[in-house]
Structures are given as C-alpha cells and as structure tokens.
C-alpha cells in the first residue's frame, strides 16, 4: 500500500457525514465543513434539533452544497430511511461538536433522533466514527462524561480529545472543541492507510543558529517547511515521530514530539543519545558547518577607534554522519536519509555526499531555489541510481518521500 495516491487533495473521493449536536462550538463546524470540502471531500451534514439553536441549517447547507438532514421522519427521502442511506454512503462519520448528552446517548446506544440513530446503524467495521467533544470544563471532567468517553472508545469510536483554554462560559480549562485545522488533521489521519504503524521516525529540520555573542549569531535561510511536512506526513501515516528543530516560524506538527534546539552541537546532543531507538532517521536540517570559536559571553560593543571584531571558526560535528555510524553499529536497523542542499552540480555533489556520509538514501535539492518556498523538486539517490520527484508542494513531496523510503526499507 502507498500514500502517493492521496497527493493532490488529501480527502479527494472521501464522503464525510458531519454531525452537529448542540453547543457553542457549532460555529467552528462551519469552518470544518469548508476545510473538508477544500481538502477534496464531499460533506453531508446531519444536525440535531439542539444544534439548530446554535447555527442555522441554511449556513451548513450553503457550505456543504447539500440538503441538511435533521429528522428521521424527513419524507424527502424516498425510502424514508435516512439513517441507513447516510451511514452506508459515508467513508467516516464525524460528530463535531459532540455534546455531553450525545456522548451519553451514543455510549448507551440510544437512537431517538436521526444523528444518534445513524451512529447506531453505521456499519462499524467499514465506517469509522470520530467524536469531537465540546463542553464546559466541569462537564468534561465529570466522571459520567469520562466514563462515556472510555465506553465510546471501547465500542470502537475515535474520541478526538479536547482543546484547552478560554471557554464561552467565561471559565478556562479543558473541554473546548478542537480547532478546525486540528480536526481536519485527525480526520485525515483516520482515513490514511497506517503504513508506518509501529515505526519510530526521528527527523531534523530547520536551520541552526551559531552564537557570535548573546544577541547575534550566524544562521541560514532554511524555513524548516520540508522537515515539518515530512514529520506531519509520517505521523499521519501512523509513525511515532520526534522532530528536532532549529529556530523556525512554524507551528509544531500535531501529535509530533518537537524538541527545539539552536546550535549544531545542541542538535547532536538531542539526536545521538536517542537515535538507536528509531527505525528511520531523516536529516533534513540545514546544519551550520562551522561555529564561532571565539564567541563572546557579552555583547560585542562598537567603540570609536576600536578594531573591528574578528571571528574565528571551528568545525561543527556532523550529526548525520555520527548517527549513520551508530546505525552501522545497529546492524542496519536504522534507515538513514540525508538531504543535500546544493547551489549547482546537484547530481555530482549529492552522489558524492551519499557515499561520504555512508547512507542508503540521499535527497538532493537546489537550496537557493527552495529555501522559504512551499514547493520543491527532489532528486533521490541510492545505490540503484536516481529518481526524480518533480516540482510539487512540500506536503506532496513529503508523502512521496515516505513512500520512497518505505519501498527501500521493504526491499
Ligand atoms: N548534516 C549534519 N551535520 C552537519 C552538516 C550536515 O547532520 N554538521 C546533514 C544535513 O542535515 C543533511 C546532510 O548532512 O542531511 C548534508 O548537509 P549539507 O550541508 O548539504 O552537506 P555538508 O556535509 O555540510 O557538505 P557541504 O556543506 O560542503 O555541501
């Protein structure tokens, strides 16, 4: 199984039944509906009567471009069996928001309105049920609600968890519905073949920062986008991912343990002690080759008549080469992937780099053409030769690269 077919629009061809129960968080469901459609899905909205108190079915109909179903007695359906038809068409049923009351009903198997009835009627082996709870923090902590959440999981539902922060009631704590982007990620994950399940991936990303003094330093133009995309895609495909990142302006990928570092030495200290516990190491970080040997503890001051500062450099450790040596000690259990950011002669430099670093796969790209951009083109080099991944978004390339790594690991 590969992930590559999902490249263009991640939810293309998927039909999502989006259920809304009563809660202020219904306002986020409108954004979620749009996000699902932008990701390529078709969306069928089903609402409870209570949900209609919070958001109009007209809004949801306009966004989904489909009739919204509310009642099991709706005679617009020829066979009058909306609960059967809707649940059979779905690739997934997502209830967002799911109120405390609906959680209780689902945990008990009640079926006295269309949404609960449809959930009980769903073919459980084929159609995953995702539940996004939304309620006040005291309600969320109530033993009955927690008991119902556990019961739903035991019955095979995916309970997506809750967000933390300010609530509509004025209180602060756990119980907010997850944000539309977070829900989209979790829905996409539930529908992604878990080809990396059971694997642990260690990924480095972003630039390093080498201090000159406490306020200045030397860095480079890496944005971290490629490494972050690989981390997100690997997590989505079921891997447990640790991302070690230099300073970037990107949000931590969802469900990825992210370790922030600054210098090349920090990167080595973060990776080397843990690398042996992983299956795949992807060195995507743009690591400074040198650091300032005579870095100052205090800010270097500019004074009239004083000589210009003179920087001396010393070589940084090579993290990829160090981990690859460790890998040899691991008898090839850890599959190491390097990146090469070149400005010219890509194939020649990248091939030499693969041999020098003693790694099975090296991914070449033209650094100045891609730093900071959302697109890239990659050249994969292994002992069999070359493979081109033409210009595409970094999200798409990350998915293609994961398939390429899997293929070589399974070889
Ligand atoms: N790398 C590393 N530690 C370093 C330098 C590089 O782990 N000190 C890794 C990068 O993360 C990348 C690969 O090695 O995966 C190649 O990095 P690159 O900077 O292109 O190569 P260098 O070995 O530094 O060679 P040069 O700068 O001369 O091209």
What does this structure look like?
The protein has 411 residues and is α/β, with parallel strands linked by helices. It has 2 domains: 15-190, Flavin prenyltransferase-like (Rossmann fold, 3-Layer(aba) Sandwich); 200-293 and 309-409, CoaB-like (Rossmann fold, 3-Layer(aba) Sandwich), CATH 3.40.50. The chain has helices at 26-38, 51-54, 57-64, 82-89, 100-108, 114-121, 137-141, 143-154, 180-190, 225-236, 264-271, 319-329, 346-357, 367-370, 394-410, and strands at residues 15-20, 42-47, 92-98, 129-133, 158-159, 163-166, 172-176, 200-205, 210-213, 216-218, 240-245, 257-260, 280-283, 290-292, 313-315, 335-342, 361-366, 375-382, 385-393. An 8-stranded mixed beta sheet has the order 12-11-8-13-16-17-18-19, sandwiched between helices. A 5-stranded parallel beta sheet has the order 2-1-3-4-5, with helices on both faces. A hairpin with a 5-residue loop joins strand 6 (163-166) and strand 7. The relative contact order is 0.09. The model has no long low-confidence stretch (mean pLDDT 94). The structure holds cytidine-5'-triphosphate.
Q: What's the layout of helices and strands?
A:
Blueprint: E1 15-20, H1 26-38, E2 42-47, H2 51-54, H3 57-64, H4 82-89, E3 92-98, H5 100-108, H6 114-121, E4 129-133, H7 137-141, H8 143-154, E5 158-159, E6 163-166, E7 172-176, H9 180-190, E8 200-205, E9 210-213, E10 216-218, H10 225-236, E11 240-245, E12 257-260, H11 264-271, E13 280-283, E14 290-292, E15 313-315, H12 319-329, E16 335-342, H13 346-357, E17 361-366, H14 367-370, E18 375-382, E19 385-393, H15 394-410
Parallel strand pairs: 1-2, 1-3, 3-4, 4-5, 8-11, 8-13, 11-12, 13-16, 16-17
Antiparallel strand pairs: 6-7, 9-10, 14-15, 17-18, 18-19
The structure holds cytidine-5'-triphosphate.
């Amino acid at each position: 199984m590969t992930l590559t077919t999902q490249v263009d629009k991640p939810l293309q061809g998927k039909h999502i039944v989006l259920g809304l129960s009563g809660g202020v968080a219904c306002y986020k469901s409108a954004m979620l509906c749009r996000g699902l459609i932008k990701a390529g899905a078709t969306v069928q909205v089903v609402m409870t009567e209570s949900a209609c108190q919070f958001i109009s079915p007209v809004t949801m109909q306009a966004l989904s471009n489909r009739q919204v179903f509310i009642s099991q007695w709706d005679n617009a359906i020829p066979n009058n069996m909306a609960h059967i038809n809707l649940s059979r068409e779905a690739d997934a049923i997502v209830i967002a928001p799911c109120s405390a009351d609906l959680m209780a009903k689902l945990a008990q198997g009640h079926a006295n309105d269309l949404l609960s009835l449809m959930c009980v009627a769903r073919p459980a082996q084929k159609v995953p049920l995702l539940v996004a709870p939304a309620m006040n923090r005291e309600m969320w902590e109530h033993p009955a609600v927690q008991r119902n959440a556990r019961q739903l999981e035991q019955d095979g539902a995916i309970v997506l968890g809750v967000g933390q922060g300010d609530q509509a009631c004025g209180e602060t704590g756990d119980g907010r519905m997850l944000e539309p982007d977070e829900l989209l990620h979790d829905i996409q994950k539930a529908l992604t073949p878990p080809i990396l399940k059971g694997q642990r991936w260690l990924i480095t990303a972003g630039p390093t920062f080498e201090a000159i003094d406490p306020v200045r330093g030397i860095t480079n133009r890496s944005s971290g986008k490629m490494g972050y995309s690989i981390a997100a895609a690997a997590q989505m495909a079921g891997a447990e991912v640790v991302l070690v990142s230099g300073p970037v302006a990107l949000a931590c990928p969802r469900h990825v343990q992210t370790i922030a570092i600054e210098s090349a030495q920090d990167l080595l200290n973060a990776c080397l002690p843990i690398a042996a516990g992983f299956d795949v190491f992807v060195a995507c970080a743009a690591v400074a080759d040198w650091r300032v040997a005579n870095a100052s503890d205090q800010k270097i001051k500019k004074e009239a008549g004083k000589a210009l500062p003179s920087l001396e450099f010393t070589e940084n450790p090579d993290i990829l080469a160090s981990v690859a040596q460790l890998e040899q000690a691991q008898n090839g259990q850890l599959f190491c992937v390097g990146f090469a950011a070149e400005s010219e002669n890509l194939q020649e430099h990248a091939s030499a780099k693969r041999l020098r670093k003693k790694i099975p796969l090296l991914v070449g790209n033209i650094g100045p053409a891609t730093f900071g951009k959302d697109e890239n083109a990659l050249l994969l080099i292994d002992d069999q030769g070359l493979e081109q991944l033409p210009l595409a978004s970094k999200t798409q390339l990350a998915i293609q690269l994961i398939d390429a790594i899997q293929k070589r690991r399974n070889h």
